[in-house]
C-alpha cells in the first residue's frame, strides 16, 4: 500500500507540458504535452523537420522552450544534466578527435564521476568494436563512430537516455545486432529511454509506446501502445500482433504527414 502510494507520487521521468518552440518566426513545435514514466521506452517518429531533434535537445536542457515547461525526474533539464542523469547520443557523433575510442568512453566516466558504470572495454566489445578500441575517431567508419557515441551515452548508466536516430548511419546487419543488444541491456535496468527513429520496425521492436508527430509545427498526432512481450525475438517480430502494430504505426505516420 505504502509502495503503491510512493510510486504514484514519484515524479515522471519526463514531463513535457504544453511546450511550444519557435526559432525567430519559424514555429517548430506547437503545444506538445507528454509524460513518460520511469522505465518506459518511448519511440518518437515523424517527418523530417517536424521538431524531433529540437524536442530531444530541450529535454537535455540544450535548448529552452519558447513556452510551456519540461521536467526531468521532477526538476529542470539543466539540473538533471548537471547531475549526469541524462545520457545523449545525437545523430552526429560527438567524439574527442585526439582520443581513441576507448579513451572517449573512459572520458565520459571521468566527467560523470560515475561509480556504477559499465566496463568501457566490455561495452565496446559488445558493440563489435574490440579491434577498434585503440583507433582515433578519424580512423573509424561513420557507423563505428556512431557505436562509440552510443557507448559514451550509456557507459555511466544514466537514468534517462536520449537517442536521436543513433542507428541511422549503420548497415542493416549491424543495426539489427545493436537494436537487439540495446533491447537486452535496457531490459535489465530501470532506465528510461526516448528514441527518435525513422524506422517504424525499430520503434515497435524497442518501445513500450510510440508517439507519432505531425508535420512542422510538430504536435503529437497519435500514440500507439506496444503490448508485446518484453523479449521481442525473431518469432515475436514475425507475429501477426507485431506486424499489425507496425501497420498501425505506419498508417498513423502517413496520416500525420498528410494532415
Ligand atoms: N538552432 C536552430 N536555429 C534555427 N532553426 C532551427 C534550429 N534548430 C532547428 N531549427 C529548425 O527547426 C525545424 C525542426 O528541426 P529538427 O528539430 O531538427 O527536426 P527533425 O529532427 O524532426 O528533423 C527545422 O526547420 C530546423 O531548420
Ligand atoms: Mg532530427
Explained architecture:
This protein has helices at residues 2-9, 52-59, 77-82, 101-112, 120-126, 142-154, 172-187, 200-206, 234-237, 240-258, and strands at residues 14-23, 26-36, 41-46, 67-72, 86-89, 160-164, 192-196, 209-213, 220-225. By secondary structure, the protein is of the alpha/beta class. It has a domain at 11-85 and 159-258: P-loop containing nucleotide triphosphate hydrolases (Rossmann fold), CATH 3.40.50.300. It has a six-stranded mixed sheet with strand order 5-6-7-3-8-9, sandwiched between helices. Strand 6 (160-164), helix 7 (172-187) and strand 7 (192-196) form a beta-alpha-beta unit. Helix 4 (101-112) runs parallel beside helix 6 and helix 8 (200-206) packs across helix 10. The model has no long low-confidence stretch (mean pLDDT 91). Bound molecules: adenosine-5'-diphosphate (ADP) and magnesium ion.
Overall structural class, as computed from helix and strand content, comes to alpha/beta
- How many beta-strand runs? 9
Strand order of the largest sheet: 5-6-7-3-8-9
Assembly of the depicted chains: single chain
Give the second-level CATH assignment, the architecture of the domain at 11-85 and 159-258. 3-Layer(aba) Sandwich
CATH fold annotation of the domain at 11-85 and 159-258: Rossmann fold
Distance between the termini: 46 Å
Q: Describe the biggest sheet?
A: 6 strands, mixed
Number of helices: 10
Task: Jot down its keywords.
3-stranded antiparallel sheet; binds adenosine-5'-diphosphate; single chain; 6-stranded mixed sheet; binds magnesium ion; 39% helix; alpha/beta; 22% strand; globular; Rossmann fold
